[in-house]
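User: I'm putting together notes for a lab meeting next week and I want to include a structural view of one of the chains we've been expressing. I don't have a solved structure, so I'd like a prediction I can at least talk through. The sequence is below, exactly as it appears in our construct file.
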Amino acid sequence: MIRMRKILLTAAPLLGVALVARGVYVEEFDSPGRPRAPAGMEWSRKTQLSYPVSWEDMVPGDGLARLTADRGALDRCARRRGKSFQTLSIGPVEPGSRLSMRAKNTAVPGLVGLFFTYLSQGGTFDEIDIEIVAVDTTVRPAGHRGDWTDARFNTWAEADHETLRPATLIKASLRDADGNKVSHRDGVFHVYTIEWASDSVRFLVDGVEQARSMAFVPARAATLIFGFRRMPWAGEPDWEGSQTMLVDWVKIEPLSP
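Assistant: Thanks for the context. Below is the predicted structure for the 257-residue chain, given as structure tokens.
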């Protein structure tokens, strides 16, 4: 059964741009090709971790978006030391928003599963990150045997591109509602959420708060981006062929007061 895309929108201006600021936008990827964005917003993509793919390859219209990393393309990026993203993005989004994604296969050795906001403007950048890896090679807690997923929850506000400061950088293990460390290498869909208020950022996974930042909270509208990136601290790929993150839906909605 084909699911209907649900949109309830009103527009509000920010920095001269008409944004979807007081309504709810849910993209369920039920139409093939480039998703249709609300007025004032736009979908885009980067396909550096796979061989040439079309919008229809990434969004075939069956209710799932596909972010695929190919091992051959991954190795090619490493040799050339180029940027290595396989992402979809929509923007702009603004403070006062709850940003959510339901996805699976986000924790893949050698790759970082991304759900984040980004803006580069005026010589500085803003960013809010959820980064998921199978094992973070820079974090080795006692007893770590790869039986849970490492995560990073970060914020930058008008940070310097060279020093990457100021920033709040949080490294942690994902935890369930009972406080247990859990792995997302489980073939199960999970919901990743950023609650972006004017004075704080909350990071939630499956409705459970994982971290919170009260400092360096971005105040400028940004782009919401999700998918994969090759990063050395995510370890080495232990797979051949390809790995695909499946995204069921992405939601942008206003925060409650």
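A couple of points you could mention at the meeting. The CA atoms of residues 108 and 134 lie 5 Å apart. Residues 1-21 have pLDDT under 50 and may be disordered.

User: Perfect, that's what I needed.
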